[in-house]
Amino acid sequence: MVQEKYFVFVTGGTGFMGRKLITSLLQRGHRVKALVREGSQQRLPPGAEAVIGDPLSAASIAPHVTPAHTFVQLVGVAHPNPSKANEFRAIDQTAGCAGAEVAGLCRVTHFVYVSVAQPAPVMKAYIMARSAVEARIYQLRLDATILRPWYVLGPGRRWPILLKPFYALLSLFPQARASANRLGLVTCEQMIAALVNAIENPSQGMRIVEVPQIRQSVLG
Q1: Is 112:70 a contact under the CB 8 Å cutoff?
Q2: Is a pLDDT exceeding 90 seen at residue 118?
Q3: Does the structural domain 7-150+187-210 have CATH classification 3.20.20.150?
């Protein structure tokens, strides 16, 4: 049972993880306000409070945040792949840094950010963009939880299941086992549980949640 209810501000709430997270938070009694672009309000789960703004602009976000306790940053390019390097810098990095700066400006108690597993052999531009946001969070000295999945399975995102035999093979070799664990696949349900647990158990300082911890996440 949830002992405390939180007021949670979410960017990226209309995405495939955002909608599921908001639904879970509302079911657990939390209040949720979500930043959306004009015309996207109807995509939010019923019960969430929609506010119109630009997730790439700190000035656009800031008026809507207070008095939220927790800021959850989920904005990112849909279906990331190596061809989207410019989008990662323009959207993922810009939105992440804007959210972190607003969280500091508005004195939000806890900032929650979905980053990516590091280091990794591919998707260098994606990792650089997410790492830049992590660095900004650190510079701002935010109390933050950073989740680092490698790939989140979900609707339309099932092809990496084909890699499971490869992961199983890597896990047999001690020198490769750590990489296999760090770059393992997680389900959307595991990510939602990890996000909810982060929100309900705020961090003091910066907390990093890696793939093995995400995989163990369950909702009480």
Answers
A1: yes
A2: no
A3: no
